[in-house]
Amino acid sequence: xxxxxxxxxxxxxxxxxxxxxxxxxxxxxxxxxxxxxxxxxxxxxxxxxxxxxxxxxxxxxxxxxxxxxxxxxxxxxxxxxxxxxxxxxxxxxxxxxxxxxxxxxxxxxxxxxxxxxxxxxxxxxxxxxxxxxxxxxxxxxxxxxxxxxxxxxxxxxxxxxxxxxxxxxxxxxxxxxxxxxxxxxxxxxxxxxxxxxxxxxxxxxxxxxxxxxxxxxxxxxxxxxxxxxxxxxxxxxxxxxxxxxxxxxxxxxxxxxxxxxxxxxxxxxxxxxxxxxxxxxxxxxxxxxxxxxxxxxxxxxxxxxxxxxxxxxxxxxxxxxxxxxxxxxxxxxxxxxxxxxxxxxxxxxxxxxxxxxxxxxxxxxxxxxxxxxxxxxx
Length: 378
Hints:
alpha/beta; TIM Barrel; 14 helices; globular; Arc Repressor Mutant, subunit A; 2 domains
């Protein structure tokens, strides 16, 4: 079995509104039959458990979409079904993503009672004009109240911020980041705004309507500022966009980055499962109607269930593992094959390589995608 652990990802595909920067599989609908959806998740959990019942489950992650729109009873049914099938790690992490607009004290207390012990709150900005520009439905005050409420209920709380926003200066970001750190978070996810094809922002950008985005130099300054402030506050980056106090890293995401196994359940969910010595890629039907229809007719939610080649497994280890500050250990044969390129990247200060452990340096981290592309080129 892979050493990276075993997790379960549950994808809830529904949102109150589609954010203009979001390219996740999320959908806005008039109504949701939660009883029907809970039953479908239970059916898929049964199917996946039949393949992996011998595993110890280290983490469960409710992602989306907006999982905090789920009824407490839906989350409870899912977690009860999980408990029927797998042995649970003593330090099982159960995370649920939440938006400030969908947070209520009773709902949060209900999630905690069902077994959720960690929440990740999509704050994104701490001022109202930028929240509006990002298409968020909550105010900065609502976000702060949500964080405070969550910390009174859950053992562990993380929240997200997006920086390198339109018209944002280094000093403005410094002020906002210090405000976030004044809340004494254990974990922060800090993402530079990216413009993705197929999003509302992507369409505006193509038409020249998305102005005042940072240039390369400003983006680099914002990155450096982020690392310096977070390091000084005791929240170093353990992954490109994730900062945590020691011991507060997201255990679920570490499964991804350490090439562990996880089962992806829900519309568009991806998974990696090792069965009978082979590592499989799984991808579920993307559209909610297609997925739930397949599950209810006994076809299963997966559209793709392919064994990965050893070359593909190594490529994925590089793609995911180099995101971590600790780097990854790679086969000696691969290191030998790439010796010249590795030495070139070491010479310009972008890479370290010791005892077959490849690590991207602080200097190389802002250009990580280019480094990975070089390493994976023929």
